[in-house]
Amino acid sequence: MSKTDVAIAFRFHESVGLVVRTADVPVTTLRCDCPLSAARFALILKLLSVIYKLVQSDSYATKRDIYYNDPQLFGSQKTLDSILDDISCMLKVPRRSLHVFATSKGLISGDLCYLEEDGTKVNCSSSSTGKGVPDVNSRLMVRKLWDTLHVPVFALVDADPYGIEIMCIYKYGSRAMAFEAHSLTVPSVLWLGLLPSDIQRYRVPEETLIPFSQADESKLNSLKSRDYISCQPAWEREIETMQRLKQKAEIQSLASIAPHFLTRVYLPNKLRYGGWI
């Protein structure tokens, strides 16, 4: 697929995020006379067979479960993930409807209780927060809380390009899951911190800052070129600040100011005085 193909396949919708453009979407063609196509078609049929059995028995499996049932067949986890996304998009159903889910890595904490389908009560005050690049289940949960409770959603991420990327996935979605954007994105997400401008504002010690790498520079340039960033002037200014400083900071760097600075000073002041963008 060329860069032009990718550009016309997705569009940015301010109230939804990244969505698939229904017209002119690039189509992958499998040919029976091509060995590579034949192999991929066989894997699609295999995975459809697994999905059929899961749906029929009303049971669920993780992507890793399916892969490790026959790792030699799929070759890599990435291959299975790609085929699963293709099937989901082809059938126009979310992946959870296929009874296949990713191993969850998001956590949740706070004054919230809810009931699972089997009646199990979950008390979120004994858990923690989300972490890292969000999986689909984490994004679904945040979207569900936003839809149900109508609460503001704030993002607290590292002041680096990958922290911004994580926040953007929650707010705007990703190309890989653009066909599910309406049920996964939370367009109201606000950037609470750690802002690049906070590094100077709070005089974060120089020894805790990390110099930019070439990968960081490339990621930041990629972020700047995205349509949804241009719709957020305040975000653009913060990205420009980061690019000018050529340094990044983790949330934990605030502990170098004082052990409880994050929880007793930084977050309370941010929330009290509207220090988000």
UniProtKB/TrEMBL annotation:
Keywords, sorted A to Z? DNA-binding, Isomerase, Magnesium, Metal-binding, Nucleus, Topoisomerase
Report domain Topoisomerase 6 subunit A/Spo11 TOPRIM positions: 129-271
Which catalysed reactions does the entry list for this protein? ATP-dependent breakage, passage and rejoining of double-stranded DNA
Gene Ontology MF terms: ATP binding; DNA binding; DNA topoisomerase type II (double strand cut, ATP-hydrolyzing) activity; metal ion binding
Instruction: Give the superkingdom in one word.
Output: Eukaryota
**Cell compartment(s), UniProt:** Nucleus
Where it mainly occurs, coarsely classed, is: nucleus
Q: EC number(s) of the enzyme?
A: 5.6.2.2
Cofactor field: Mg(2+)
Q: Cite the PROSITE patterns for this sequence.
A: TOPO_IIB (PS52041)
- The answer to whether keyword Magnesium applies is yes
Extract one GO cellular component term from the record: nuclear chromosome
In what residue span(s) does the Spo11/DNA topoisomerase VI subunit A N-terminal domain sit? 40-100
Matches recorded under InterPro entries = Meiotic_Spo11, Spo11/TopoVI_A, Spo11/TopoVI_A_N, Spo11/TopoVI_A_sf, TOPRIM_Topo6A/Spo11, WH-like_DNA-bd_sf
A biological process term (GO) from this entry: reciprocal meiotic recombination
Q: Any idea which residues are catalytic in this one?
A: Y68
Q: Is Isomerase included in the keywords of this UniProt record?
A: yes
Task: Tell me which family the UniProt entry assigns to this protein.
Answer: Belongs to the TOP6A family.
Record-linked PANTHER family: MEIOTIC RECOMBINATION PROTEIN SPO11
Q: What is this protein called?
A: DNA topoisomerase (ATP-hydrolyzing)
Supply the gene name: spo11
